[in-house]
Design a protein that fits this description.
The protein is an alpha/beta fold. About 35% of the residues lie in helices and about 20% in strands. It has a 6-stranded mixed beta sheet. It starts with a strand and ends in an 18-residue tail after the last helix.
């Protein structure tokens, strides 16, 4: 299994963490864990990521590095040796469509009691359908999208089934 973490930094808006897993043995992505918390200091975010990395040994951590996020990410990389990369934030709507497609096709799995379900139930778009409505939190959704975009589950290929040894 390959584990990825997405992090959406915030202060008043919550900092969100999302852990996803994929394997080249199947064409699916699994949301393993996600949550958010407001008013976390950068050192507290780093401690959480260090604990998670010890448990999952992340292939990469995708972090929102906009604004001061870049300095925070670089500090965490230096102090904790975390595999942090800048999250891809361009073409967000295309990435959302890919995730939605995987959900509909049964290639993205979440637990029934996952906090992301509640966020998705509330999340709305602006009237012009150009961005998410700012009155509704999207932090776990963004963190999950950052991690999902790094998953390579689509590289899965059906392996040729060889006959059992000794059969004709």
């Amino acid at each position: 299994w390959h584990y990825l973490c997405g992090v959406d930094l915030g202060w008043h808006d919550a900092t969100a963490f999302s852990v996803v897993a994929y394997s080249f043995e199947q064409p699916a992505v699994y949301l393993v864990d996600c949550w958010s918390q407001s008013k976390l200091l950068p050192s507290q975010v780093a401690e959480q990521l260090d604990k998670l990395n010890a448990e999952y040994s992340f292939t990469s951590i995708q972090m929102d590095t906009a604004g001061m996020g870049k300095a925070i990410a670089e500090e965490m990389k230096m102090r904790f040796g975390l595999p942090i990369k800048a999250a891809k934030k361009t073409e967000k709507f295309a990435a959302i469509e890919l995730l939605n497609s995987d959900l509909q096709c049964g290639n993205f799995f979440i637990q029934e009691d996952s906090p992301i379900r509640e966020e998705w139930d509330q999340l709305q778009w602006t009237k012009d359908l150009k961005k998410e409505h700012p009155a509704y939190p999207n932090h776990i959704s963004d963190a999950t999208l950052y991690a999902f975009r790094e998953a390579r589950h689509y590289a899965w290929r059906q392996r040729e089934q060889l006959p059992a040894f000794g059969t004709q």
